[in-house]
């Protein structure tokens, strides 16, 4: 009998979780795809990297999708069981809370293991791959510059424009305007016009240079004594550092590297990664008593409360991680105090549901 109940409830919660996770993943993939499509349309990314970047971003977003999908899966399943009086029938048939809750905990453990692998190992690999694609995209800078459209760089301080592109994939009739401060701290501008712009990559260092052919360079502000006009046959501008350089960003570092580091930012990063599977287990335990509702309350009665708890929980973990980075909270305490508080709330709700406090109060009386 216990095996039948376990199999039935496990299939029910698994189906619900898969539907919720699938919908959230689809929305996440769509949002990421739309974002990278917009960047490609603006000339900031090569078009052929859009889908790959969206998939890697999806892997990173699994850290968010898996915990909330587990919470919603348990809440929705328990809500349906209570609405259809199946939960009451199970208890009337002699099934205890341990028998009923075991399938939910089992699924949470499986999802937590998968989420741990994603957040600890796959997400850093995805971050490295996105950095590599970004570096490779920088080495093909001419592909991201659409002719006939103005493109801004340096937070809007530089403007690039090309009239057309020739058969050799070089840009023609180029205009560049850069606003910078001069040695005296006064605003100054540089305008460069050229017949052609081509890309040149150093085979040894990997440095990418935008080479301008046959043009003029205007430096300074018109009307001032230091205004200069220079004609050039060839003028080079470095546009990218060597591709493939290792990133020092903690987001892309391995778990072993983070654990070996004494940097508080590294401590905050690995604690945040480990928090993903831990939060799945705690949220599943919290959802078990929270999801049990009266039959007439409806399937979605506690979903809003569950989402609110999730938002508070996740933001508290994030704020604790930021405090660890700023060394406001010691790394030993880290984000664990947030997990302990939510776990204590979940355990107390389960104990209350089992009548532990009522029995203790009766014994005391």
From TrEMBL:
Highest taxon, organism lineage: Bacteria
Transmembrane segments: 16-38, 58-79, 100-123, 303-323, 329-351
Topological relation to the membrane, as annotated: Multi-pass membrane protein
UniProt key word Membrane: yes
Alphabetical UniProt keywords: Cell inner membrane, Cell membrane, Membrane, Transmembrane, Transmembrane helix, Transport
Keyword Cell inner membrane recorded: yes
Subcellular location(s) of the protein: Cell inner membrane
Role description: Part of the ABC transporter complex LptBFG involved in the translocation of lipopolysaccharide (LPS) from the inner membrane to the outer membrane.
Protein family per UniProt: Belongs to the LptF/LptG family.
Subunit comment: Component of the lipopolysaccharide transport and assembly complex. The LptBFG transporter is composed of two ATP-binding proteins (LptB) and two transmembrane proteins (LptF and LptG).
NCBIfam families, sorted: LptF_YjgP (TIGR04407)
Official protein name in the record: Lipopolysaccharide export system permease protein LptF
């Amino acid at each position: 009998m216990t095996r039948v109940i376990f199999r039935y409830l496990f299939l029910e919660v698994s189906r619900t979780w898969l539907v919720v996770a699938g919908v959230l993943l689809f929305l996440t993939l769509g949002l990421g795809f739309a974002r990278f499509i917009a960047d490609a349309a603006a000339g900031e990314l090569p078009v052929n990297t859009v889908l790959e970047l969206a998939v890697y971003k999806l892997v990173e977003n699994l850290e968010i999708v898996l915990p909330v999908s587990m919470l919603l899966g348990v809440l929705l399943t328990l809500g349906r069981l209570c609405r259809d009086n199946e939960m009451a029938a199970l208890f009337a048939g002699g099934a205890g809370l341990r028998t009923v809750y075991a399938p939910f905990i089992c699924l949470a453990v499986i999802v937590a293991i998968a989420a741990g692998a994603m957040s600890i190992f796959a997400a850093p690999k995805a971050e490295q791959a996105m950095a590599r694609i970004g570096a490779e995209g920088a080495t093909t800078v001419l592909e991201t510059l659409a002719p006939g459209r103005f493109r801004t760089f340096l937070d809007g301080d530089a403007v690039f424009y090309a009239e057309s592109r020739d058969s050799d994939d070089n840009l023609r009739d180029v205009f560049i305007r850069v606003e910078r401060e001069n040695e005296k701290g006064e605003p100054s501008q540089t305008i460069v016009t050229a017949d052609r712009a081509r890309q040149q990559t150093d085979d040894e260092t990997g440095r990418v240079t935008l080479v301008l052919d046959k043009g003029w360079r205007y430096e300074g502000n018109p009307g001032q004594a230091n205004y200069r006009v220079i004609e050039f046959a060839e003028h080079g501008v470095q546009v990218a550092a060597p591709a493939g350089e290792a990133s020092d960003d903690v987001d892309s570092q391995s778990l072993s590297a983070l654990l070996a580091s004494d940097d508080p930012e590294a401590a905050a990063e690995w604690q945040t990664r480990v928090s993903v599977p831990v939060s799945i287990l705690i949220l599943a335990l919290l959802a078990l008593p929270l999801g049990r509702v009266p039959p007439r309350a409806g399937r979605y009665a506690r979903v809003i409360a569950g989402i609110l708890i999730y938002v508070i929980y996740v933001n508290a973990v994030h704020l604790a991680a930021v405090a660890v980075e700023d060394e406001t909270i010691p790394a030993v305490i880290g984000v664990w105090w947030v997990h302990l508080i939510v776990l204590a709330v979940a355990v107390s709700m389960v104990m209350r549901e089992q009548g532990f406090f009522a029995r203790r109060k009766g014994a005391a009386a």
